[in-house]
Design brief:
Blueprint lengths: L17 H14 L3 H6 L3 H4 L4 H14 L9 H8 L4 H14 L18 H9 L3 E4 L22 E5 L9 H10 L5 E6 L2 E4 L3 E4 L8 E6 L2
Helix pairs in contact: 1-4, 1-6
The structure holds zinc ion.
The site of zinc ion (ZN) has 4 residues, from strand 2.
Length: 220
């Protein structure tokens, strides 16, 4: 079972989650000396919090395994701890992973219609109030006549709409387009008469057709 997020001591706001508790159970079982009993005696919120004492135990386990004592649970330390997890710990890990996934908004054509690298970007736009105008479309063409990023399956692009179609003057659409520009997973973004691309930045776009939607392409 893969690690959903890197776990570490964060200040002032501590990390909390069932995934933290799962790793605390694993570490307690690995190090023994009554640690599991002590952990079980704590309130749920305490069991799920990555506090200062847990850092010490993570470092101790890393020391015993002969790996870098960072006190941070990345993929390598996770594998180490996972070997000591019992059924309850594994269940907590799964519950955490399941609670994260629904935070994504599913495209109207389904998750499989859009490349997974764009799920988060798509979700951001939908949460801002833009509407789904499509992901996969085998007939979609670029102004040049070549198949667009919508025409691959799953699509490497999505369109998020708004009305009236005022292009760049729509405040929400502009805020979304500016948010997408420069993100690690975006290749280019079009809104109204402007386009941003990874290699050339913002400039004018004169082909039209984007007065009522933002087009966002991922990296192929
Ligand atoms: Zn498009």
């Amino acid at each position: 079972m893969a690690l959903t997020r890197t776990l570490k001591l964060t200040l002032p706001k501590l990390m909390v989650g069932k995934d933290v508790e799962a790793h605390k159970r694993g570490v307690a079982r690995a190090l023994g000396s009554g640690r599991l009993t002590t952990l079980m005696s704590k309130a749920p919120i305490v069991r799920r919090t990555f506090g200062v004492f847990f850092v010490t135990d993570v470092k101790r386990l890393q020391e015993l395994a002969g790996i870098s004592q960072s006190g941070v649970i990345g993929p390598v330390t996770h594998d180490l701890i996972y070997d000591h997890m019992d059924d309850l710990a594994v269940r907590l890990l799964k519950e955490y992973a399941a609670s994260v996934r629904p935070r994504l908004v599913e495209p109207n054509q389904g998750f499989n219609s859009l490349h997974s690298s764009l799920w988060e970007a798509y979700t951001i736009g939908r949460r801002m109030g833009l509407s789904d105008l499509g992901t996969y479309n085998p007939a979609s063409r670029l102004p040049s006549g070549a198949p667009s990023d919508h025409a691959v399956n799953p699509a490497m692009a999505f369109d998020l709409g708004f009305s009236p179609g005022t292009g760049w003057n729509n405040i929400t659409a502009r805020a979304f387009a500016e948010k997408m520009a420069g993100r690690a997973e975006t290749e280019y973004v079009i809104l109204g008469d402007r386009i941003w691309s990874r290699d050339r930045g913002w400039r004018r776009y004169s082909y039209g057709g984007h007065e009522g939607h933002v087009h966002c392409s991922g990296i192929r």
